Amino acid sequence: MTFSLTVLGAATPYPAPDAACSGYLLRAGAARVWVDAGFGTFANLQRHMNPAELDAIWISHLHLDHSHDLQTAFYGLAYGGLGLEAPIPVYGPPGWVAKYFGEHAGHFTDVTEVFEMHEIAEDWSGRVGDLRLSVCRVEHSQPAYGLRAEYEGRVLVYSGDTAPCESLVELAAGADLFVCEADFDTPEQRTEYILHSTPEEAAQMASDAGVKKLMVTHVAYSLGIEAATARAAAAFGGPTISARDNETHEI
Ligand SMILES: [Zn+2]
């Protein structure tokens, strides 16, 4: 049975023509999970499936370039005639409902008609069909999580947004595919509020975790995905690829 990752977007901090922000479609057998809902990813998701048929949505953290299209999806699913039959389970960081669907959001439809609400924490794990999901807390400026997805002995790990951190290395142990952000050109760009990794730091985490393949994602426009991937590949020394919109990778 298939276990694949389709990139719905990898740009940050804003979408460009043909470049959506963070989002992925994870398919494992019959299960389909939308991982991160950055700007533009709801549109790209429709290239691959009817969003009403999603089995779950998982959100790494509440920065807009990873979560804004929860609102877009709500409009589509509530008002767009997509044929939603039952609320879709959403697993998001604490506060996602209040942020997007609180009393001032102005939505006419109750969010519970569209989304089944779940909040994740450091010890969260879940199951969607035969896909097993678990998380770790990563180093970002607000509660943010990395994701490990396991299906029939194969493993995908996604960093979300993070500075280099040991919890992510542990989560990524032995992964077949490690999707890791490489937003920064240099570590000196890190501040108390802006925490990301460089290509070399992504590669170091990949090496430390013993992953089989590294996918570089979430790269600043000023750095560029080609340059970031080349730097990560040189430092990792193993198979290294770029996240490109609408490309599907078997895990
Ligand atoms: Zn972020």
From TrEMBL:
Coiled-coil annotated spans: none
Superkingdom to which the source organism belongs: Bacteria
Molecular function terms from GO: 3'-tRNA processing endoribonuclease activity
Metallo-beta-lactamase domain mapped to chain residues: 32-218
UniProt name for this protein: MBL fold metallo-hydrolase
Species this chain originates from: Actinospica acidithermotolerans
